[in-house]
Fold this sequence. Notes:
Radius of gyration: 27 Å
Strand content: 15-25%
Number of helices: 11
Number of strands: 12
Mean pLDDT: 80
Largest sheet: 5 strands, antiparallel
Shape: elongated
Structural class: alpha+beta
Distance between the termini: 48 Å
Number of domains: 2
Amino acid sequence: MDNFKYSAPLVFRSRLSFQPLIRAWQEIIENNPEGGKTYSRLLEELSQHSELLEPIDDLQLLKKHKQIIEQMMTTVFPISILNQEKLFGITEPFGTRAVFASADLKKNLQDKKENYLHGTDEQAKENIELAKMHMAYKLILEKFYGIKLTGSITCVCTNPDTEKNISNYLELEFDSQFIDVYTDAKLPLLPENYITEYCRVSDISHYAELPQLLPLDEFIFNGIAIVYIRDATEKAVIHHVKKILQSDNAFVDTKLFTDLQQQIRYLLNMPEIQTGITPFVNINNYFAGSKLNFSNSILLKDVHEAAKRAALCKYVTEAFTNDSCQIQIPQPGLNLLLS
């Protein structure tokens, strides 16, 4: 099964609208009039600003009605979320401009035009676009075909810290519960058992025919999207390091080693740290390996005699086996303390 072929930028027919949120308030008021007093007051105030009750094309209205919009947006996030999450906001359905942003998001990830993640690279942009595509088809399949996909809409991207010359990995999670989707097109029948109700959102990428069966430009999306941003540096770095170390050339490929060292710098948030990698190949109690294998080893790259390399590997291995917290390398000129 082929994957989507990404072509940037994707174009979505979408508009900012508070209508889905307002409907959610109305349902709460209908089911619990006493508990919905806050929403009733907001609806009463909104009734005096009819331009906010319709889809919004002029984003200058957001500044004009900033106070009431911020009150509206706080109803989206319960206190439990406000206490747990630091980076979150509300955007146009498929945009990057924040209609509402948490204090940490404003401080750390917004530019002067109120766009978040403005410094991302091309791979990050591709990941975000793919997540938006997943969100679009999740809405379409659920509304028009009754297929409810499981799982969250997420992607991982890098966020460069230019001052430290390192990058952090961030995970973005998109919530589409306040987005409506419409179409005037005659929709096709999907092939039998094409997508089952047990399909995960992330699996949508495997259905390469979807953009032809259901072209996104035939749909209109109105509403607001919720985005949560979390630090995923540790998880992402471990994934990358594991992938590098599984390579057959991990110990000798200079490019792979440079990438490995950069990942360690990201993980430790230490841009100047030097990383080495030393293979310990024990064959019948003899530590073997060519000089090429040790080219990226801080411990052994300057030890040129095979017998000395083997003896040093044996010493370090035995010391770690004995649970030593620190190992002083007794090799002239190395001056290394391992811990």
